[in-house]
Amino acid sequence: xxxxxxxxxxEKVVVRGLEGIVAAETSVSYVDGIHGRLLYQGYDIHDLxxxxxxxxxxxxxxxxxxxxRTEHDAFRSELTAEMRLPSQVLEMLRLTPPNxxxxxxxxxxxxxxxxxxxxxxxxxxxxxxxxxKRLMAQVPTIIADLHxxxxxxxxxxxxxxxxxxxxxxxxxxxxxxxxxxxEAMRVLMVLHADHELNASTFxxxxxxxxxxxxxxxxxxxxxxLKGPLHGGANQRVMEMLRDIPDVEMxxxxxxxxxxxxxxxxxxxxxxxxxxDPRTQHLRRYSEMLCxxxxxxxxxxxxRRIEQAVMEAKGIYPNVDFYSATVQHAMGxxxxxxxAVFAASRTAxxxxxxxxxxxxxxxxxxxxxxxxxxxxxxAPLDQRVAPDQE
Length: 389
Fold this sequence. Notes:
The protein has 389 residues and is mainly alpha-helical. It has helices spanning 45-51, 54-63, 69-81, 87-95, 102-113, 125-150, 164-173, 179-192, 199-209, 214-226, 233-243, 250-259, 279-292, 296-313, 319-329, 337-358, and strands at residues 2-7, 10-15, 29-32, 37-40, 43-44. It starts with a strand and ends in a 31-residue tail after the last helix. The model has no long low-confidence stretch (mean pLDDT 93).
């Protein structure tokens, strides 16, 4: 909703949530909410999800084009070589309270990485490229190492034969992923890599516009994603599944949620007015993974929830809905779901940060003042509390 203030010759229009406001130009990604399309650097998400590796997509988002075979192989090797963490960051992970949220730990660990990056204050394109590769590789490692530290397990070194997604699963669980899991992780990370100017991406670009370092901008994006209105819906989808142990309970459960005006997790989107194009891929992998792990009932319940919500409200599921069971079936604990999303989205955040650096203008919007004017000032000893007036 827009409201207008007129003050002399100055007119300020307030748009709550900045909805519909164009705040940046980007070539990184494009969301067509009317037709349900998502493009990365001009390429359709369906083609990328079906035919590219995650490292190809990272290269595309950062460079604006798909790599050649030689470029891709070298780039993937460079990323894998950067996956280990400084010993001081590992010690910090060990010192975090066991009940602290993985997103809070991830945000703090990224900030700490800045202290051990030799290029942190070097803002040249070459230095930013080096920092980008380190951060892209280290974020998944933070998550995997944190999980194993909290379980009292030994840490697992990355395998040079695996890409980032497969290595993440290997380092998290200690066992190599099978072919289906590797494919599912690849698709999951490709689909989550970027999504235009959402809240976390905007936060990253605002910080980058001050010419602060890349680590600070990425930490800001993580802070924004931690908020429940932006990230975490996939974790709450799993919580909903725990409340619905049987498929026959779905309709009554959904009806009760709607009657009590409660939000059903994993449904609706600020931009899409039709089905999120990423949903169909995750729906397919949810079915395959749940069947392969003898948890087919979870996917069946999700399908029934999708049908019930569509019949009652005409609302489509979003990317978080089926990503919950995809991650669960691969052995990723629910409390790490948002962090795994962040590991993928780091590719897009960095692309936007570097795009902001390349053509920068400090982002400094205005506000509409609604406070008092010309209030009478009283010295400290003459002031009284409002309830004593």
